[in-house]
Amino acid sequence: MAALVYSFRRNSHAPQCSYWVDAGALCWSGGGEKHRLDFTEIQEVRLIECYPRRRSALSNKRIWVAQFVGSGSATTVLSQYHLARDGNWQDRSADYYHFLNHLLGELRAANPNLVLIRRQHWQVRLGQAARRMLIQVGGWTLVWLVKACRPLPPVRLAVAAGAIARFVGPWSHGHRIAQANLAAAFPQRSATEIEPIISGMWDNFGRVCAEFVHIDRMLDYNSNEKSFDRIRLSRKTLEQARRLREAGGPRLYFTAHLANWELTAIVATAVHSESDLAVVYRPLELGAAANAIMIQRSKAIGTLISSEPGAAARIRDALERRMHVAMLVDEHFRDGLQVQFFGRPCWVNPTLARFARLFDCPVHGLRAIRLPKNQLTAEVTDALDLPRDADGKVNVGGTMQLVTATVESWIREHPEQWIWMRRRWR
Fold it and tell me: With a threshold of 0.70, does the pTM exceed it?
């Protein structure tokens, strides 16, 4: 069997070296020289988490550098960070981690007392401390802004926030992500046609932020006139809500980051009841603002279920009590199922489909739409015709594809109302 070999160039002053394991030793060659470090000479291995030194394909993530400390404190370094001949830095993670795992396995077998140290580079520790501080400062700033904006008229505040977002948004990294996402989703559209969509996205995002300040006031529901202050519901939606309320649960709802997505939970709470609806949400890392956001949401929405560990048990408990459960389904989920979204593969959280299979309950789509004259509306679909396997049980993969296709159809109707600035395809 051929020896496993890993090659990389550490910096501009070093030659490209090739590393392999041979007869109980780490061997490497480069620059016309060969070297050998016996496993018995290796006293410890240090795995150091650090930032890449140069802007490259790795500039937005941290890397692991392996240091092998031999006798006399001589150190051999391995990294996934490779300097190519053209001067560009490359990511060789796949080959690097494959070789590193093989090397560590051989080392442990030869030296059971091997010392393995994992630590973070001081720059990483400093960056994490700075991030925690910024989160705390940003959280308190957000709390202050919410309190300062509460007395302002909701409509004027939303219009002003939309204008500010349209001005500031193009300077952000999210703007470039949105441009790339839209170009991939709508390849037939030119850059000139895409820019108005992005401008509308920023306007909608600013309005969502401003409307959250008054989220509890959006619940000014008039049961006699069947209307809200700024929310307009069609007769079809109201009739559908009445039928669902009378039919009872359990039921599953899915929604997406369209228009003011908080509105979908607000309307569902209003047409059902707080005791019948549970909403799954992802907690934000906003320091002091996280509690303030929870308080604001709890004023307008029924039972809240955090998506942190233990969420599945709480969702199951809610469905067993015949409650309705609503959740967002348009976020990237690294360990999820692969589906097609705008003709490209992406990964989704299969939780909704798994509970639909477990309880064999109806699944409905619930979306918000932003209307002219500063108004909003919400719509609920009929129960989806879920695909099933040979045993008649709900097919998880097929269901998530159907749900994703439904969300895609919503976005195609109002592309300017979806949040394109997130990395949905990875």
Answer: yes
